[in-house]
Automatic annotation (TrEMBL):
The lineage of its organism: Eukaryota, Metazoa, Chordata, Craniata, Vertebrata. It holds the Pfam family HHH_3. SUPFAM superfamilies: RuvA domain 2-like. It comes from Ranitomeya imitator. InterPro entries: Ribos_protein_bS1-like, RuvA_2-like, Tex-like_dom_sf. Transmembrane segments: none annotated. It comes from the Eukaryota. This is Uncharacterized protein.
Length: 200
């Protein structure tokens, strides 16, 4: 058992045994030739800069401790040299804190990561669409024309009135006017087979 802080730090600096090989864990990923394949999402420097400019600087920092105001300042392109080096922080998973294998390396800004993941979800929603009768409120928020209030209202309408039979029924949802409907209708699917099975 390691008790000396310096020895713990030296052990934690060698994270190679913590990494997992994704291919072994996932195995063969089934392919469905009927559905289109999503393209790989690549982020350009301009896209990262745009996301950094949209960060709300009045929010608190994530677990990485980087304040959103600092991330916003990164868009100027002028950052100190020591910021250009990754700051890998060990984050405790579970088990004994004296075992290095119970930590995972972490070097991604949570604010930027959330923005990027949201962007990927929005891209998937735009590419594939969502089934209005089975999707969650959180997923609905990523559809053009819907915000958190409208998404909540859609879910409440669905729970009160049953499944949507057509997209036109979205016009009955509180707070969803003609413009919002026009923006979101193209991304919403109604699986008629699911509706028939549900109504039997």
């Amino acid at each position: 058992m390691v008790v000396d802080d310096e020895e713990k730090a030296n052990i934690l600096n060698t994270f190679s045994t913590v990494f997992t090989v994704e291919n072994e864990m996932l195995g063969e990923i089934p392919r469905n030739n009927e559905n289109p394949i999503l393209r790989v999402t690549n982020l350009t420097q301009e896209e990262v800069r745009n996301r950094l400019n949209k960060i709300k600087i009045d929010k608190s920092p994530g677990p990485d401790g980087i304040h959103p105001r600092v991330l916003r300042e990164l868009t100027t392109g002028s950052v100190p040299q020591d910021w250009r080096i990754a700051n890998v922080v060990p984050i405790f998973k579970k088990g004994s804190k004296s075992e290095p294998g119970n930590y995972r390396p972490h070097d991604v800004s949570q604010v930027l990561l959330k923005g990027t993941l949201d962007s990927v979800v929005e891209e998937c929603v735009s590419f594939v669409g969502v089934d209005i009768n089975i999707c969650s409120e959180i997923l609905l928020r990523h559809i053009a024309g819907l915000n958190s209030v409208r998404a909540k209202n859609v879910i409440e309408w669905r729970e009160k009135n049953g499944p949507f039979i057509t997209r036109e029924q979205l016009k009955c949802v509180k707070g969803l006017g003609p413009k919002s409907f026009q923006q979101c209708a193209g991304f919403i699917r109604v699986n008629q087979e699911y509706v028939r099975n549900l109504l039997r």
